[in-house]
């Protein structure tokens, strides 16, 4: 079984947030950046990857994403600030 990533996309610091899960963070972040995925992230221009965490089992990542989607926005924002205080786009660091 492959691992999985839980991630958060935004349009700007403290902007609209989207929480997702994927088995391939590089591909998924690229799809969001390029507007290749119809729906919420494209409609709101959520192109900045500001948070990600890896799980050895995709099922654990799916459970974490499900839990996070029920969190208040302030909790997600604090999670991002703790991990990525400048809300910088982490996509640039994926292939380093």
From TrEMBL:
Source domain of life: Bacteria
GO molecular function, one term: endonuclease activity
Cross-referenced InterPro entries: GIY-YIG_endonuc (IPR000305), GIY-YIG_endonuc_sf (IPR035901), UPF0213_domain (IPR050190)
Name assigned to this protein: Putative endonuclease
Keywords: Endonuclease, Hydrolase, Nuclease
Family, as annotated: Belongs to the UPF0213 family.
Natural source organism: Roseiarcus fermentans
Every GIY-YIG domain range: 2-78
Source lineage: Bacteria, Pseudomonadati, Pseudomonadota, Alphaproteobacteria, Hyphomicrobiales
């Amino acid at each position: 079984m492959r691992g999985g990533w839980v991630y958060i996309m935004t349009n700007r610091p403290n902007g609209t947030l989207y929480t997702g899960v994927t088995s391939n963070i590089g591909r998924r972040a690229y799809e969001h950046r390029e507007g290749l995925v119809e729906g919420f992230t494209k409609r709101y221009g959520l192109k900045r990857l500001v948070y990600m965490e890896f799980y050895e089992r995709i099922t654990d990542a799916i459970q974490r994403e499900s839990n996070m989607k029920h969190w208040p926005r302030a909790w997600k924002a604090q999670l991002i600030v703790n991990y990525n205080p400048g809300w910088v786009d982490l996509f640039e660091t994926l292939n380093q």
